[in-house]
Amino acid sequence: MAEYIDDDVLVCRCEEITAGEIREAIRMGATDVTGVKRRTRAGMGLCQGRTCEALVQQILRQELKGEATPESIGFSTPRTPQRPVTFGTLGGDNL
Amino acid sequence: MSAYDVIVIGGGVIGTSCAYHLVKKGYKVALIERGDIASGTSSHCDAAAMITDKMPGPDAALGYASIQKFIRLSKELDYDFNFDQAGSLYVCETDQEVEVATGYVNDLRAEGYRVKMVDPYEMSQIEPLLAKDLKGGFWSDECAGLNPFKLCYAFVEQVKGKGLDVFLHTKVTGIRLNEKNQVEGVDTDRGRFTTGRVINCGGVYAPEIGRLNGLNIPILPRKGVILLSEATIPVCHQKVQEFGYMVTKFANVECDRDPELLKYNVAFTLEPTEGDNVMLGSSRNFVGYSLNTEIEVINAIAKRGMRFFPILKNMSCVRAYAGVRPFMEDHLPIMSEVDEMPGYYICAGHEGDGISMSPVSGELMTQLIAGEETELDMEPFRFSRLENRFL
Ligand SMILES: Cc1cc2nc3c(=O)[nH]c(=O)nc-3n(C[C@H](O)[C@H](O)[C@H](O)COP(=O)(O)OP(=O)(O)OC[C@H]3O[C@@H](n4cnc5c(N)ncnc54)[C@H](O)[C@@H]3O)c2cc1C
To answer: Is the distance from the beta carbon of residue B47 to the nearest atom of ligand 1 less than 6 Å?
Structure first.
């Protein structure tokens, strides 16, 4: 299993969320990537979790031990647009 | 499994508020949620608590009372739910809208609410990035915003382990009645619970839970799509909305609207978040429970947004998502016991007002269960007002 990430390590760089804050969310009841995200904002930033998702999954796996499976930890829900697009483009301006 | 005074089904804003208020009253409560706290509509929505989207009279009084309750809750609950009484601004595109708005604002002022008409110059002071060709608007500093899923966590965290037991990832599969049709327990996919009272707080899923006991709860999912911007410069400082959409509601007059907007019932709303993003909305249509974000709807919302905030054109959207409002035909939630099934309560169907009405709903259900005098007349919210209540 991957090594332990110290509590003060920044996991989500977009929203500046540390491993400690993610562990706190898990203590509050988060059991999956989306639950961590709503409780901490990890994955809500510009990259929408593309950078931190694997680390969040790893921490969930380590904290929840046997209770977690890859399916239960899950992924963040894929959303349109797949990468940032201007409202101008979405509104048909540059189409 | 253990026994509870009350079992609340559904961990959205309504269920968590009921659970919190019941525990405060001294009841031993279990909250049963099939997913995570706030995994339903209560995390797929905006979260404004307003007076200026309400009709003068009891409707506005309820809006006002809700805001006062949030002010109290923001001090009472330790978990911060980002309550911010930042105000709200409505904007008018045409002179006809300004005329209707003036009458509406006068009615609210006559009832003592702090709301006033603003001219285009004042509007540009309040929200400098607004389009410059608008005709006027109105502003109230009493309206507020908050984070809806943090509100759910705040209700739960305050009483968890102190009278409230929370069962997540646990699905209610049956509600047991005795030979007198009284509630005696709840079955779930993780075991049985004993209780004499249950509240169905299933939101758009309340009908599904109701069907387990042959109840016909006529709540329909009414979808809304929201576009989230990147975190950037402050685009707006409070909730900003177009009044055009409300004209029919407030004056029973027809106003001309772009057919493309009418098709998906698109109206412009913009809300800042605590993370410096803005949420641009929204649509209202009946397309079942699917949370797909159709490109045509995204397109119409983006266009409408740029009409009022041209700066959006060059800003990025990072996410589009949809939620389904628990819609009732007569626009009133069901907050009631089922007469024929003593101990079976329903608190659901708050459509687009569930966040702002959550404190008062939780209080009313607690008063109802405690057999106390209720803060409001509960007659309009009774389940028995509806026809064909049984399948
Ligand atoms: C786009 C949009 C914008 C909105 N804007 C606003 C606004 O500005 N202000 C405002 O006040 N309101 C707003 N709303 C409305 C508000 O979001 C809803 O009224 C509110 O969230 C409903 O809460 P609820 O608790 O009834 O339902 P939900 O949050 O859906 O909770 C119901 C819960 O029940 C659970 N459940 C279902 N079946 C079972 C079962 N069998 N066993 C266990 N659990 C079960 C579900 O998992 C779910 O978590 C908006 C809604 C939308 C869609």
So the answer is: yes
Please check whether residue B390 lies inside any domain of the structure.
no
**What ipTM score was computed for the predicted complex, to two decimals?**
0.87
Asked whether residue B191 carries a pLDDT value surpassing 60, the answer given is yes
pLDDT digits (tens, 9 = 90+) for B87-107: 999 999 999 899 999 999 999
Q: How far is the CA of A13 from the centre of ligand 1 (A)?
A: 30
Q: What is the nearest CA distance from B253 to chain A, expressed in angstroms?
A: 29
Query: Taking CB atoms and an 8 Å limit, are A88 and B168 in contact across chains?
Result: no
Contact (Cβ atoms closer than 8 angstroms) between residue B108 and residue B56: yes
Q: For residue B151, give the nearest of B381, B387, B358, B372 by alpha carbon.
A: B358
Q: What are B41-55's pLDDT values in tens digits?
A: 999 999 899 999 888
Q: Are residues B308 and B170 in the same domain?
A: no
Q: Which residue range is the domain that position B271 belongs to?
A: 88-141+220-327
Which residues, in sequence order, are bridge partners of residue B224? B323
Distance in angstroms (rounded) separating the CA atoms of residues B53 and B187: 40
Note if the pTM is more than 0.90: yes
What atom of ligand 1 comes closest to residue B48's alpha carbon? Answer: 8
Residue B358: CATH number of its domain: 3.50.50.60
Q: Which of B153, B231, B299 sits opposite A39 (nearest CB)?
A: B153
pLDDT of residue B258: 77
User: Do B339 and B208 belong together in one domain?
Assistant: yes
Q: From the CB of B30, is ligand 1 less than 6 Å away?
A: no
Check: CB of residue B336 under 8 Å from CB of residue B199: no
The number of distinct structural domains making up chain A is 1
**Mean pLDDT, rounded, of chain B:** 94
Q: Domain count for chain B, please give it.
A: 2
Cis peptide before A81, with omega less than 30 degrees from 0? yes
Same-domain status, B282 and B310:
yes
**CB-neighbour burial class of residue A66 (10 A; exposed 0-12, middle 13-18, buried 19+):** exposed
The C-alpha atoms of residue A34 and residue A25 are separated, in whole angstroms, by 11
Instruction: Say which CATH number the domain at A38 has.
Output: 1.10.10
Strand segments (E) across B129-219: 136-140, 144-145, 164-167, 172-177, 183-188, 191-195, 198-200
Is residue B76 in a domain? no
One domain, residues B162 and B243:
no
pLDDT per position as a tens digit, B123-168: 999 999 999 999 999 999 999 999 999 999 999 999 999 999 999 9
Inter-chain residue contact A31 with B229, CB threshold 8 Å: no
Residue A27 lies in a domain: yes
Same domain, B251 and B305: yes
pLDDT tens-digit readout, A6-64: 999 999 999 999 999 999 999 999 999 999 999 999 998 888 888 899 999 999 999 99
Pick the last residue of a domain from B327, B353, B377: B327
B368 located within any domain: yes
pLDDT higher than threshold 60 for residue A94? no
Residue B237 lies in a domain: yes
